[in-house]
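Narrative summary of target 7.
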Amino acid sequence: MATNTTDNTTGILLADGGCNITTATCNSCCSAPPSNTTSEEEPEAVIKVFMFEYRSQEFVELIGPRFEEHTNGRVKVDFSVVPYAEGDTFLSEIENGARLGLGLYDVFVSSPVIVGSGAPYNGFADMTEYIKTNYLEEWLDIFPGFRESFSSYNGKILMIPFDGDLLHFFYNKNILEYYNFQPPRTWQEYNDIAEQVHNKVFPPTNKTLVGSCLGRAYGAGNAWTAQVLSSMTQTHGASQGSFFDTKDMTPLTSGAMVETLKILEMQLKYGHPDELNRTIDLNQISMENEECMLSLNWGHAFVQSSNQGRLGVGRVPGSQKVLDRETGKLVTCNKDICPNAVYYDDIGFVNYAPFAGGGWGGAVNGNISDEKKKLAMEFLTFFASKEESRKWVIPKVGSQEYYAGYDAYRLSHMNVEDYVEQGFDREQTDAYLYSIKEGLASPNLVLEIRIPEVAKMGSIVDIAVINHLNTTKGITATDQMRRDVMTDVTANLTKIISDYDARATIEKMEKILPQYQKLRGVYGELNENKNLIGEVRWVGYALGFVIIAMALLFGGWVAINRKHRVVKISQPIFLHLICFGVVVLSCAIFPLGIDDSGSTERGRDAACASIPVRTKPCANHDLSMCFLCHLPLTKFVCSIQWLLSVWFFFIFRGFFRKPLWG
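Modeled conformation, tokenized:
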């Protein structure tokens, strides 16, 4: 249920100086703190903000009052907050309000997952023109990944980001150096290092070490699962999809999910004993206590860390095996399959897929007046501005003035000197900022899923993984046990999609697939009419074989009857040239039948090339190109241009020479 911060009858209790949503009786601290405005007059307007409980404290106590002060009291900001445990309710209220065209709230504050709840029903205002007119310079300072991918839907800007969540790999530098380890490059190396230090006593501190620290309680472990899975399922960038295929919404589970469960089992085996009962706080507390060797976390773990100079930050491990989407099996990564992979001399190619959770942002209700929309946009852009955001993203080390926990999302947040001035260690900051740049600049960046029903989907995966880890803790799991989990997850995800699509058909809404494609920016590309040949190519191939067979047959007949009077008069050499030219012309049918459907990029390049090429299409399952390039006449000339020019030369040479031979 939503709780308004100015309501004197509904309970909001302070915990550690902040607001925590409960159903208890209200006390005097429930209301938002009064703003220090310079005007005693009643506000001219009220902005109603609907948000999730997470991060509500700083909005209620600091951000709202600061904006009120910024407007000299002309505007008052009210907050309605949904408890953390009612995340599904939060998304449902946004979706229902959008579908019914309600203007109950002016601003929605959340992670980008809300885009899938409101955008399909035009529930969010398009802020594109406002940003171009009033916010362009500030907007261009935001990392492209956040402003183009997380904030947009089908080419429209629907959210203003003010936090940039990117998963980082954290490690204890002192422990790593003491045992002479290098930061792990793969998940296997991650688990190997965790195994070697787990339960060992670290002499400098006399503490018993834990190999890996990852809180996995319900709602906390989805990010770790998604990160491991994505390193095997996404190789060609976000447009490909990491959990669902953008072509048809097929869940990318199969062999990748089985391997993911195996990796998670090993992490748990050498992890903190309380991982299944703790949330993300376990990751940070264990690293702060210097009892944990390896962990994953968002960027706020760096900002909030008191272990300046001792916390290592690096690239999240990757995978040497990736999912073959045709077979559902894992294959060894190579340059063709994993074009964005990194090559190491000792282990080969490793596919990295940095996981960007999208951070947090604000959207404006599309069903309020234009005047209210403009005011709401002013509120969001004020908080997300360079000047204001710097206070949240780069707080002074140990300072309580601003709540740490906002990750860098602007180019202007990447100046190491700004962090050093606030007390951060230079070397540690360099590593942190480099990790951000490397991750967000990666062509294989993984984007958070923002489609309808995402909460249900995440819950299914999370519960399945937690149950499996609980069941297999302390025992050796079998591949069949993992396959059973994968099968159940795939079936449940498929059912959610089919149920939604059935409802969408009845209610004349857009189905999930086109929404997913629009969020990934591939809707037009995947749905435009490319005039592909399709199955008709097989008719062309069949006719090509018939023509070749007939040309060879007639050529043979000419050779056998070359001394016959009629044949001699027709000139056998001329007839053989014609037959040969027809054979070559018919061979051109095969590369002409190769298009974007059912062929590899290498095969298409070979078919369209204008110079002789050598190719190995058979290794890439390109059967039509494989056949073509094994024909004796086209072994080294697998291209349409060469075949067409050769037949033209022989046939017309025969025609032009006929009078001379006659």
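Confidence is low (pLDDT under 50) at residues 1-39, 610-639.
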